[in-house]
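hey can u check if this looks right to u? its 117 residues, i copy pasted from the old doc so theres a chance i mangled smth
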Amino acid sequence: MAEQASIDPSAVPSGSGCQACGAGDGPGWWFHLRRCARCGVVGCCDSSPSQHASAHARTTGHPVMRSFEPGEDWFWDVTTSSYVDGPELAPPSARPRSQPAPGPAGRVPPDWRQQLH
């Protein structure tokens, strides 16, 4: 399948939070996290203010994301807007459970619900 070529099971996550938000791109907080299934970059979901995961997919040509939320193991193809099957990826499979969602702790504004897409 085409999406399998977009997945590298050995790629490790870039960190425990959105890499771009952490680097100062945007307001610096996220609702939920997604992980690029090709290179491991962790970005914020499309409900988040900055939508870094989808932006990463568009700019790199890495279309498949996997949820990086505890208890979730689904894959999403950004180009087809559909769920796809994928293999087990290199650990960790999710952000730390101690890290809140939205997150990171201390950077989420009181009106965060009004800022979601």
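The radius of gyration is 13 Å.
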